[in-house]
Amino acid sequence: MRKLDVVVLAAGKGTRMNSNRPKVLHELAGRTLLNHVLNTAEQLTPAQTVVVVGYESEQVRLETADTGLTWVEQGEQLGTGHALQQALPELNNDNLVLVIYGDVPRVAASTLEKAVAAAETGEVGLVTAILQDPAELGRIVRNSNGRVQEIVEFKDADSAARAINEINSGIMAIPAGEINGWLGRLKNDNAQGEFYLTDIIAMAVADGVGVTAIEAAEDEVTGINDRAQLAQVERAYQQTQAEVLMQMGATVADPARIDIRGRVTCDRDCFIDINVVFVGEVRLGAGVRIGAGAVITDAQIGDGSIVQPHTVVEGAVIAKNCSVGPFARIRPGSILEDRVKVGNFVETKKAHLGTGTKAGHLAYLGDTSLGADCNVGAGTVTCNYDGIEKHRTEIGDEVFIGTNTTLVAPVDINNGAFVAAGSVVTSTVEAGDLAVGRGKQRNIKGWTRPDKKTRQKK
Ligand code: UD1
Ligand code: CA
């Protein structure tokens, strides 16, 4: 096996995106297009990956995780052939070169491997596809023996060439030694006045170097040139991800209304309602139910737990048989043990809720730990911030916190304690004690209400 250099062409502006952001920084399933392409290329363990950037190159570099990439500037975008030329000084003549495009994000590693395998035999490996609607893509011209002869760009094509429905994906693998000569001979006397990389196919054939076409599925080779294509590719991508979840044994209420921006794994018999968004790494146990409109980021949710509609979970661990939401917000560092119940408009942050603990409505629980079987009344707030620092509220087992309690941290409430509704708690409550921290009610006998008429006379 010869070593492999990968070249990613990503210098274009992407005019048709109508955007201030370079095209390759637009996102598919929460990751930039360039990131998709680089991750796929990485699977081939290349000796080197060269990224050709131009338009807003600083921004592209800043927003791309640099795993030892070689960056090359293409000052002016004079065409794909010119772009590859800029990478030449970085390439090793003894290696194979795989050219991929930053705006073709869904190509499979296995397809790239086939192209590289063709180059290994001394030929050019060219990834093509047969499309119902080849639109304005470059056309693959074959001879009567079915061998690839050349690529004709749509804008340069006559009606016969335009009738061809085999298209150029832009992806090709080439023995590096050949590139120099071919690129040196490129001309820009074509419809777009560009140096087309695609012209090297006819040069290869003229030099007696065969071209092997690797036919890929349409989904793999769809390039993104405008936002409509981006949206189409997003839906197709999400459909595949929904299928993976369904194969794992989840029921997906509508595969057209799920978004996975990361990776979800699940055990059997989960149910995922419509419009759920998953971000990052999410792990669902068996029988988990996720309600409509929930957004779940980097979380683990244990067997039998229910996330009710419109709940936001991030950076949290929810154990088994819990119920969370609707309209709850479980923020980073939250740990909910088995059978915890967190209801509507409850926010938790760095909060550990012990087994069976319930906070049914309208509460803020931050920088706190609650033991098992506590009951937190509506309107309870842990006052964790004094304007300078955060402080903790430590609550034991079987504690009852009455409605509308203000817990001024740092404060401890020990096992079995009971806090009366409406209390402001500022000091330790010992085990089993009742804390009443509120003004005493005073009733005034025979009080007369103010009267509008008498008041106006004064
Ligand atoms: C190109 C191919 C076409 C193919 C199509 C597949 C050529 C001449 N045409 O056309 O045959 O069907 O892709 O998607 O190659 N780029 C640079 N520098 C440049 C120009 C482009 O880095 O000067 C990069 C772009 O950032 C992009 C890629 O090359 O990632 C393709 O460029 P684009 O202008 O989109 O080419 P197409 O017109 O789509
Ligand atoms: Ca393109």
Which labels suit this protein?
458 residues, alpha/beta, Spore Coat Polysaccharide Biosynthesis Protein SpsA, Chain A, UDP N-Acetylglucosamine Acyltransferase, domain 1, seven-stranded mixed β-sheet, six-stranded parallel barrel, 10 helices, 34 strands, 19% helix, binds uridine-diphosphate-N-acetylglucosamine, binds calcium ion
Topology:
Blueprint: E1 4-10, E2 27-28, E3 31-32, H1 33-42, E4 48-53, H2 57-62, E5 70-73, H3 80-87, E6 96-101, H4 109-120, E7 124-130, E8 139-142, E9 148-152, H5 159-162, E10 166-175, H6 176-184, H7 200-206, E11 211-215, H8 218-221, H9 227-247, E12 251-252, E13 258-266, E14 271-272, E15 276-284, E16 289-290, E17 295-301, E18 306-307, E19 312-314, E20 317-318, E21 323-324, E22 329-330, E23 335-336, E24 341-353, E25 358-370, E26 375-376, E27 381-383, E28 393-395, E29 400-401, E30 406-408, E31 411-413, E32 418-419, E33 424-425, E34 434-435, H10 452-457
Parallel strand pairs: 1-4, 1-6, 4-5, 7-11, 12-14, 13-15, 14-16, 15-17, 16-18, 17-19, 17-20, 18-21, 19-22, 20-23, 21-24, 22-24, 23-24, 24-25, 25-26, 25-28, 26-29, 27-30, 28-31, 29-32, 30-33, 32-34
Antiparallel strand pairs: 2-3, 6-10, 7-10, 8-9
The structure holds uridine-diphosphate-N-acetylglucosamine and calcium ion (CA).
Uridine-diphosphate-N-acetylglucosamine binds at residues 9-12, 52, 74, 77-80, 82-83, 101-104, 137-138, 151, 153, 167-170, 196-198, 223, 225.
